[in-house]
Amino acid sequence: MNKISILIQIILLAWTVFTIFPLFPLIFAAFTGKLFFLNLTPSDFRLDFFEKIVAMMGNAYFNSLIIAIGAVAINIPSCSLAGFAFARFKFKGKLQLYNTLMVIQSVPIISGVIGLFFLFKSYGLLNNLVSLAIMGAVQSIPINTWFAHDYFRQLPKDLEEAAEVDGASKIQAFLKITLPLAAPLLVTMGLITFIITWNEFILANIFITRKSLFTYPIALLAFGTEATTSPVGTYHWGYLAAGSLLGLLPILIASIFLRKFLIEGLTRGALKV
Question: Within a domain: residue 191?
Fold first, then answer.
């Protein structure tokens, strides 16, 4: 192993430590209720913060899961078909439409929140989980369509053409031949959409005012300000830290078990040919 390789590994190790270090105060606060982990004794560690979070916020956790899963169910078929169309078909205005999608990705969603509010109000979708599922799916359409376009471009057309020779239509070839080969892409798009929707705060805070429909981030903020008196400032850091760790679990579990597909989907979908 040469010196450059050793140096690169040291830099990567240092960066890893730097990025995961904020988790340690969070973990200590979740189990002890204290922001600083000096002079701690075994008796300081307890699970009551987690127990109360689970008891009080289980419904909000379930709401966020339903919204995120719904967003994924909307986004994956939409972006798969759009990406396949951009990759395989020629049509008028294709380049302009594709570039428009990329421009939309750079526009912050908050800039259209007033229009969205009145739109959802006119359709009776305020205080409705459907509106957040739709917005979660829409927010990741540009980037997922870009990934799908580049991924499908790199898949050979031979199998699709062979299926069409055997009598399959374009859509049948897509569903039965191309889509099964794109499992890493589907996982990547699903995880991106899930993360964006799961972490959504601003839109949920605007469109949802009924407490029974609170999403997990909104409920965590409300609970953190209401939960008993805190020895540090306004918030009770033990409850906030425990809630934050529980909020990390779905994304962490999905990333661990799907990392192989995620890495291939990100790298292959990001390369142009």
Answer: yes
Q: What's the token pair of residue 110?
A: 């908050």
Domain tally for the chain? 1
Residue range(s) defining the domain that contains residue 167:
59-215+249-270
Q: What is the pLDDT of residues 97-107, one digit of tens each?
A: 888 888 888 88
111: tokens are 């800039």
Q: How far apart are CA 240 and CA 29, in angstroms?
A: 9
Residues near 150 by beta carbon (within 8 Å), at least 6 away in sequence: 87, 268, 269, 270, 271, 272
C-alpha span between 151 and 216 (Å, rounded) = 33
Are the C-beta atoms of residues 128 and 204 closer than 8 Å to each other?
no
Amino acid making up residue 85: A
Binned at pLDDT 50, 70 and 90, residue 135 comes out as very high
Q: What's the pTM value of the predicted model, to 2 decimals?
A: 0.84
> What tokens does 149 get?
């376009």
